[in-house]
Amino acid sequence: CFIASSELTNKFFLFTAQFSRTYAHSQQLEATNNIVFSWSLDNVSNPTQVQIGISGNVLGYLSVGFSFSNSGSKMDLLDCMMCAQNASAVMLGDYYVNGQNRPAYDAKQNYYAYNVSRSGTTIFCEFDRFLSNSNDTANDVGLPFGFANTPVVWAQSSTMPTTLSRWIQHGSASSDRGWMNINLCPECTPPAPSLPPVAAPKAVPAPKAPPAPVAAPTPVAAGLDGIVAPGEYPGSATFGSFQLNWKVDTLAQTVTFAMSAPGQGYVAFGIGNSMNNHDVQVGRLIAGTPDTYTVYDYWMNGYNAPPLDSSRGGSNNVLSFAGRYDATANRLTFEFVRPITASDTSDEGFLLDTPVDVNYAWYETRTTSIPNHGSSRRGVGTITISSANVESAPVDPTAAPPPSGGAGSNTNFGGSSSSGSAPFDPQKENAIQIGVIVGVTLGVALLVAVLLVLRLKACPDGPRKEEPTNEVEMK
User: What number of other Cβ atoms are within 10 A of residue 394's Cβ?
Assistant: First the structure.
């Protein structure tokens, strides 16, 4: 069960008095109070997340959940979200229900990117969650997608709860609670029915054809691994405990960043000198055992949990990524590739060789959500991404690291950043050598031409002929 509350200081709330986004599907659960369940999947081919919205003419609280069971009482082993709002309080949280008992607050709050608002007597509750329950198999329900119906359970009350643990029991009328089987992915294509195997007729061997030519394999670019190796990134900046590295690919028009900070929570890096209307990429843990990490493209709209670009009409422009937690150093590192220029209205681009304001934040406690980072784990600064910050050849890890080609400055923590000349460029060295050879050749040719001109001036009638002589050679 999910419940929204102003007492939950590690969560953020948006107040829009309506749904903040459009949903692909909706289903009315109850007509008297017009309780409507709406949802969208992140994609239909291989969905991993679901966006959910529930609304109704409710004065107290409204809840929606998913049952572990397809038979019997749907209140036995129920994973649900409850929300409420009035003039003085907002409540939202992840709860677990076992029978006709008061909901128990789930120690792992597995939801994010949510919105709670009210317009008159209508309350709007929105949240995102993963389909998988791998992070909390005991108290969360894994949501099937495709073709299986999922029991969606709902309840409402006209009485506001007094605290997070004092939820008033709902009524027993059909307008107070109920459930409905819902297919979360109606657009998915059902699998073909399995048929018993049929023995194939014996095939007549065909004459062997000459082997077809084999195409040369396509070169594969070096992958990301969540590790910053010596010499891997020519540009870098240090802001207190936050480390940023980068390199550019001017041919592909992309920039690769590596961001690292203490802890196991999340690491965020964005453009701009504030959290108001700026582009940001957040790397975080999404599941455990084994740990699974992701980097997504978000948009900051103030001191709230940032919404995904895709929820604002944009797209996730993180082209590739990798994340890794180093337990020895207690640092979380993310590498990701993004375009240099903006790709949609929810993106901001970089100008090479030009100082740009950036902001950063991190959260140290292990979590799969995006809680408030606090005032001591965030800041703003300035970096310059040079067009010379191209990736150089790997270097000997025992050798001194090469100088970086970028520059950074910290305006919050007083941290330092590295700067220096561009790395060795073999193409530039070859060009210089060729220029020297061409210059020497032209100089020799010019000298020969001058000597020829001087000789012609000394002998205008051409070379002299030998005169006949009457001398007799002495034997």
Answer: 11
CA dihedral in degrees (58, 123, 54, 61; nearest 10)?
A: -50
Handedness of CA 400, 401, 403, 409 (dihedral sign): negative
Instruction: For residues 203 and 34, give the distance between their C-alpha atoms in angstroms, rounded to a whole number.
Output: 63
Q: How confident is the model at residue 175 (pLDDT cuts 50, 70, 90)?
A: confident
- Rounded distance between C-alpha atoms, residue 163 and residue 333, angstroms: 39
Give the residues across from 154 on adjacent strands.
64, 178
Contacts of 31 (CB under 8 A, 6+ apart): none
Structure tokens at 58: 């409710």
Neighbours of 240 (CB within 10 A): 18
Q: Which pair of structure tokens corresponds to residue 262?
A: 């203490």
Per the CB < 8 A criterion, the answer to whether 387 and 248 are in contact is yes
Q: Report whether pLDDT(415) > 50.
A: no
Q: 3-state class of 193 per DSSP?
A: coil
Q: Which of 86, 83, 167, 169 is nearest to 121 (CA)?
A: 86
Q: Mean pLDDT, the chain, as a whole number? A: 75
pTM of the model: 0.41
> What one-character-per-residue DSSP string does 35-58 give?
EEEEEEES-SSS--EEEEEEEEE-
Percentage of the chain with pLDDT > 70? 68
Question: Residues 6 or more apart from 68 whose CB is under 8 A from it?
Answer: 76, 77, 78, 79, 141
pLDDT at residue number 330: 96
Residue 112 pairs in a beta bridge with 128
Burial class (CB in 10 A: 0-12, 13-18, 19+), 315: middle
